[in-house]
Design brief:
The chain is an alpha/beta fold and about 300 residues long. The chain is built from ten helices and nine strands. The strands form two sheets. Strands 1, 2, 3, 8 and 9 form a five-stranded parallel beta sheet that branches. A four-stranded mixed beta sheet has the order 4-5-7-6, covered by helices on one side. The C terminus is likely disordered.
Length: about 300
């Protein structure tokens, strides 16, 4: 079936996007802060034990993130003045209050990322999903002191009802549809899409592709250089998707540091959060009423 959520919009025929202070690239880190239930298969480093209950090998690997990896990464983010966009499971918000406190002290952006990463956002009846998302939203708002306006589903999963429910709950943007290098309006009134990446994502780069740290650094630099060149005529967004149990490993720390140093040392880069990118785009690019009245192909 056709995707009714947004229409085709070639990037070459859109109004110019201007980021604050003449920046060419808006850069943000999408930091996945996730909770995994013991005894449920999920993201694994070795599938050979993924069906075991318990599965110490894979669960312990994932658990390294909130225990150790994220704290190493926070030191790197602080070094370059980067405030991550925290993609937060609501169960992580209650199980890891120290992480939430660290993020609140640093003014991170808080996006809803479902309840846990041991279940996908699929298969729910609409009424059940609405209750589920209401509870998840309130849990995150209470823990962080900030009601989330951005959403990314676990595994970037949605139902056909998810965007409508999110809009009713006060969300203004989603990351799930990784179809662009710029924000764009959705046909769902009140919602826009902000770029995220399943390619420039440590799970796929280190996991699926088996990259070394040096190759990861080179990939991040190559992505930035091309987007910077593309942005001569109109602003671009660069999202770097990270997981503390992956990039938070000790032998990868220096490569993340090198990559962020390269980006932060360039002029014309806005070190932003996804919240700030969404808000600036809506305020500076869309005309009054445009997000409600016109399809994505007519304005991006």
């Amino acid at each position: 079936m056709e995707n009714a959520l947004y229409a085709y919009s070639p990037i070459i025929s859109r109004p110019r996007i201007n980021w604050p202070n003449g920046a060419r690239v808006a850069f943000y880190v999408g930091l996945n802060i996730e909770y995994f239930e013991l005894g449920k298969p999920s993201t694994s480093i070795w599938e050979g034990t993924a069906g075991l209950m318990p599965d110490p090998l894979n669960h312990g690997w994932r658990d390294y993130g909130p225990r150790v990896g994220i704290w190493r990464m926070i030191e790197t983010f602080d070094r370059y003045g980067i405030r991550p966009s925290a993609l937060l499971n609501s169960d992580a918000a209650t199980h890891y209050p120290e992480i939430v406190a660290a993020g609140r002290a640093r003014r991170w952006a808080w996006l809803a990322h479902g309840k846990t990463n041991s279940m996908l956002q699929t298969g729910m009846a609409p009424d059940d999903e609405r209750r589920f998302l209401e509870e998840m939203t309130e849990t995150i708002a209470t823990a962080t002191g900030q009601r989330p306006t951005g959403w990314m589903g676990p595994g970037l999963s949605e139902t056909f009802e998810t965007p409508n429910i999110l809009k009713d709950l006060g969300y203004s943007y989603i990351l799930d549809w990784t179809a662009d290098d710029q924000p764009f309006p959705l046909n769902m009134p009140g919602l826009i899409s902000v770029p995220y990446s399943v390619e420039l994502n440590d799970l796929s780069l280190f996991g699926t592709k088996g990259m070394t740290g040096e190759a990861f650094y080179r990939t991040v630099v190559d992505q930035f250089d091309q987007l910077y060149a593309d942005s001569a005529g109109s602003g671009r967004v660069m999202a770097l998707a990270l997981h503390p149990f992956v990039t938070g490993q000790a032998f990868r720390a220096s490569y993340l540091d090198k990559a962020l140093d390269y980006i932060a040392s360039h002029g014309g880069v806005w070190l932003a959060t996804s919240d700030e990118i969404a808000e600036h785009y809506r305020a500076a690019t869309l005309q009054p009423g445009e997000i409600n009245d016109k399809p994505a192909s007519n304005a991006a």
